[in-house]
Specification:
The complex is a heterodimer of chains A (359) and B (307). Chain A has 359 residues and is α/β, with parallel strands linked by helices. Chain A has 2 domains: 131 residues, Response regulator (Rossmann fold), CATH 3.40.50; 181 residues, Rossmann fold. Chain A has 11 helices and 14 strands. In chain A, strands 2-1-3-4-5-11 form a 6-stranded parallel sheet, sandwiched between helices. In chain A, strands 7-6-8-9-10-12 form a 6-stranded mixed sheet, with helices on both faces. Chain A has a two-stranded antiparallel ribbon with strand order 13-14. The termini of chain A are far apart. The relative contact order of chain A is 0.13. By secondary structure, chain B is mainly alpha-helical. Chain B has one domain: ABC transporter involved in vitamin B12 uptake, BtuC, CATH 1.10.3470.10. Chain B is built from 14 helices and no strands. In chain B, helix 2 packs antiparallel against helix 3. Classes of the chains: A alpha/beta (359), B mainly alpha (307). The interface between A and B is medium-sized, with 35 and 32 residues.
């Protein structure tokens, strides 16, 4: 038994050592780590669809691998190290909480390229960051929510108090208020990206508090099931969630990572890969708006569609002044547009939202 | 901006039921002197099997039965190892939890995102529409009523029947029970299987009714809470019900306080059930005689029939 283990260890070692030498002829290895399960039908599902698109696009020239349900923290570092050791050329780390592990592992493997989603740290020349301007989609959903609510209470299931989530809340609120001055947002922090039990409980709590439209910034479809039972409406998050259409899912924010993943894999193959910071929205197609169903009145669908087109064309920015911060102090003057730096680090609510951002 | 007590109570009952079912099963197991730390593993296996069977057959009832059966099957492994091969109960129980978590992830591949069949409520919808008492008393699925009946049954059997007396005798002093001619190992095996079935049913309720979805690791520590509840309840069935509802109540309440926009530090509320459990454990262990009054004397001890 001992001998067998030894042989296995030695052969594993030699394989590991041989891999970089063979890398020239071998297919490009692309690794992905996911925070949820690929069957979540939300965030991770879309990343995995993009992974499959990479496989389809390059055929035998690329091999992909993935690890799902990787906790954010020390476990992520272990998985990333394992992936780098097993010969990955390019690794996509697809959750905000992988930021520190990604940079730590990148330092030890300078020949492996890392792409971290939704983060901002690029400590090493082999780390890129990328994200989508989800707030553009949130603006459209907020517009629809403001029109659709009858109780004037919109529930919002938030995950963690980080800039991306706060930006989404602000964007949705601004555009809901714009069409409905009486609308109020009730925000529940679930402190998880993916825990169907907690998400379902949070949705129920919001409905019990009178919300009839619910937006979610968590990844599972569990809130949809609750909404269907309660007769409330919501929006697909990260993925289309079309199986819940025409109601409760009346539209959706869809993340489309495939073009980006294909482009970055191509860059690695061509040897042109560089550390970059990408932040694309509706225009380049990284953020898509899911079909608006008949549950939405026709004129609302039309105005929402007009907003989508204006954002895509670059004619309209969802954070356009005049806008005040929650405490009433001025943030953006009339016609002024928020700069990316402020948006990337957003840690305040805009005027009109009640409650505090948790620390 | 207030919180509606009716919907709060309805929510807390749903949230509490998986934990309650697992706790009442474990209570009986511990009453026979066996400590099974594998509750989490049995729950999650019950959750995945219940979900898989419910989705494939279209029958939630078969799903619940499958959840119970799989929990029972897993507990039987524990039973054989600890009762017949005399392995250490703590280590075996922990191993069972790890095994259950891995097994469930394997069995559940391909199932996340499937939709289970709807579970019909036992009472007509009109009854659930009676103000206040309607939603609280008549608006639940059958398993919830079953869980309360189970608590009552366990309370009655343990306290007022010969079977209960035998169970308690085995748990208090297995040598004496053996000397009286009771089959200690057989009785313990049956209790362990009952505990497994309850944990499996709790898991199936979680996946088929409460969340209506399967996700790896979805029990998220509910099995451990059930174990703590048994101690919290000092092995008394009605206190286990109270403890479970208290725990569920705090969970449901903190989400509602947030939704109502009431400014409280949610972290403190979220951890309060665990803090209470620790305090109870400290109080109980500080006074040996009080613990001895309630805890089964032979809890966790290995029984080997000599002569």
């Amino acid at each position: 038994m001992k001998t067998l283990t030894k042989i296995m260890a030695v052969s594993a070692l030699s394989l590991g050592l041989a891999a970089p030498a063979l890398a020239q002829d071998d297919p490009t290895q692309v690794g992905f780590i996911y925070v949820g399960s690929i069957g979540d039908l939300g965030w991770t599902y879309e990343h995995d669809r993009a992974r499959l698109a990479v496989e389809e696009h390059f055929g035998d020239a690329v091999e992909t691998s993935y690890v799902e349900n990787v906790p954010e923290g020390a476990d992520a570092e272990r998985v990333l190290t394992q992936m780098a050791l097993s010969g990955a050329d390019l690794i996509f780390t697809t959750s905000f909480g992988y930021m520190d592990p990604t940079n730590a592992v990148a330092e030890r493997f300078p020949n492996v390229r890392f792409e971290h989603a939704t983060g901002y740290r690029r400590d090493h020349p082999n780390v890129s960051t990328y994200s989508a301007r989800f707030y553009e989609g949130r603006a459209v959903m907020g517009h629809i929510a403001g029109h659709m609510t009858e109780s004037n209470i919109v529930g919002y299931i938030a995950s963690f108090p980080i800039p991306e989530v706060i930006r989404g809340i602000n964007s949705a609120f601004i555009h809901a208020r714009e069409v409905n001055p009486d609308v109020e947002f009730r925000i529940v922090w679930a402190y998880t990206w993916f825990d169907p039990a907690v998400e379902a409980d949070a949705a129920q709590a919001l409905i019990d508090q009178g919300a009839d439209v619910i937006m979610q910034h968590t990844d599972s479809t569990a809130p949809m099931t609750v909404l269907a039972e309660a007769g409330a409406i919501g929006f697909g998050q990260a993925s289309d969630m079309y199986q819940f259409a025409p109601a409760p899912r009346v539209s959706a924010i869809i993340d489309d990572w495939a073009p980006y993943y294909i482009a970055r894999t191509q860059a690695v193959m061509d040897g042109t890969w560089e550390s970059t910071d990408t932040w694309d929205g509706i225009g380049p197609g990284m953020v898509g708006i899911g079909e608006m169903t008949d549950a939405i009145p026709e004129e609302v669908r039309a105005s929402a569609q007009a907003m989508v087109e204006a954002i895509a064309a670059g004619d309209y920015h969802p954070f356009t002044g005049p806008l005040n911060r929650q405490d009433g102090s001025a943030w953006l003057a009339e016609g002024e547009v928020a700069d990316d730096g402020t948006l990337a680090g957003m840690n305040f609510y805009v005027e009109g939202i009640t409650g505090d951002v948790p620390n | 901006m207030g919180i509606d007590p009716v919907t709060l109570i309805v929510a807390l009952i749903t949230v509490s039921t998986p934990v309650l079912l697992a706790a009442i099963g474990e209570l009986v197991v511990e009453k026979t002197g066996v400590l099974n730390l594998g509750v989490e593993g049995m729950m999650i296996t019950g959750a995945v099997m219940g979900f898989v069977v419910a989705v494939n057959t279209g029958s939630p009832t078969l799903g619940f039965l499958a959840g119970m059966a799989s929990g029972m099957a897993l507990s039987l492994i524990f039973g054989v190892l600890t009762q017949m091969l005399l392995s250490n109960q703590v280590a075996t129980g922990l191993a069972l939890t790890l095994f259950g978590l891995g097994l469930s992830a394997l069995l559940g591949v391909g199932y996340p995102g499937s939709t289970p069949p709807p579970v019909s409520d036992p009472f007509p919808a009109a009854m659930a529409e009676i103000p206040v008492i309607g939603p609280i008393l008549f608006g639940h699925s059958l398993i919830i009523y079953l869980s309360v009946l189970l608590v009552a049954a366990v309370w009655y059997v343990l306290g007022y029947t010969k079977v209960g007396l035998i169970i308690r005798a085995v748990g208090e002093n297995h040598d004496a029970a053996h000397a009286l001619g009771y089959k200690v190992i057989r009785i313990r095996l049956m209790a362990i299987m009952f505990g497994g079935a309850c944990a499996g049913l709790g898991g199936a309720f979680l996946s088929v009714v409460r969340v209506q979805n399967w996700v790896d690791g979805m029990t998220a520590g509910a099995g451990w809470i059930a174990l703590a509840l048994v101690v919290f309840a000092s092995w008394k069935p009605w206190r286990a019900l109270l403890g479970a509802y208290l725990f569920g109540g705090v969970t449901a309440l903190q989400l509602r306080l947030q939704a109502a926009g009431i400014n409280i530090p949610v972290e403190i509320l979220a951890m309060s059930p665990y803090v209470i459990t620790i305090i109870v454990l400290v109080i109980m262990s500080s006074d040996k005689s009080r613990t001895a009054l309630n805890a089964p004397a032979a809890l966790g001890k290995v029984f080997h029939a000599t002569g």
